[in-house]
């Protein structure tokens, strides 16, 4: 499964209306697109509240690497995901961030599976 980077503001706003999974270093937003495209859309947001430009860019680099490693195997094809950085996220070990992301992705996949199997 391939990754596509979200670039339009409308994509980020649409993801904000989806599921929300807060974790210690970030918040994961998940929104199934509902189209036939299996590509996983991924976006990264780190506000100025988190720190200066160096801190924000470091956090985004860490998020991109986490996404490359964890998201293709997450089982969330055809969805848009957004990682929102939280203050102190850079202080968390990369391995711990990876575990948090895996946990959030499993919770999201479980929730989406329940929604799709529920009778309409």
UniProtKB/TrEMBL annotation:
**Which residue positions does the secretion signal occupy?**
none
Where would you find the membrane-spanning parts of this chain?
none
Q: GO CC annotation: what is one?
A: ribonuclease P complex
Top-level division of the source organism's lineage = Bacteria
- Keywords for the protein's UniProt record, in alphabetical order: Endonuclease, Hydrolase, Nuclease, RNA-binding, tRNA processing
Q: Name one GO biological process term.
A: tRNA 5'-leader removal
Provide the catalytic activity annotation: Endonucleolytic cleavage of RNA, removing 5'-extranucleotides from tRNA precursor
Q: What is its EC number?
A: 3.1.26.5
| An example Gene Ontology molecular-function term | ribonuclease P activity
Residues forming coiled coils: none
EC supergroup of this enzyme? hydrolase
Tell me the Pfam families matching this sequence.
Answer: Ribonuclease_P (PF00825)
**Belongs to which family?**
Belongs to the RnpA family.
NCBIfam families (alphabetical): rnpA
Function in brief: RNaseP catalyzes the removal of the 5'-leader sequence from pre-tRNA to produce the mature 5'-terminus. It can also cleave other RNA substrates such as 4.5S RNA. The protein component plays an auxiliary but essential role in vivo by binding to the 5'-leader sequence and broadening the substrate specificity of the ribozyme.
* Record's subunit section: Consists of a catalytic RNA component (M1 or rnpB) and a protein subunit.
The name this protein carries in UniProt is Ribonuclease P protein component
Recorded source organism is Sphingopyxis witflariensis
């Amino acid at each position: 499964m391939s990754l596509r980077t979200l670039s339009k503001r409308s994509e980020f706003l649409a993801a904000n209306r989806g599921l929300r999974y807060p974790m210690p270093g970030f918040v994961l937003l998940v929104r199934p697109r509902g189209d036939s495209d299996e590509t996983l859309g991924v976006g990264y947001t780190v506000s100025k509240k988190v720190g200066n430009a160096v801190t924000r860019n470091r956090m985004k680099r860490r998020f991109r690497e986490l996404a490359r490693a964890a998201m293709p195997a997450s089982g969330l094809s055809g969805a848009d995901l957004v990682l929102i950085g939280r203050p102190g996220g850079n202080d968390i070990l990369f391995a711990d961030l990876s575990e948090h992301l895996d946990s959030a992705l499993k919770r999201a996949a479980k929730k989406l599976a329940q929604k799709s199997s529920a009778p309409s």
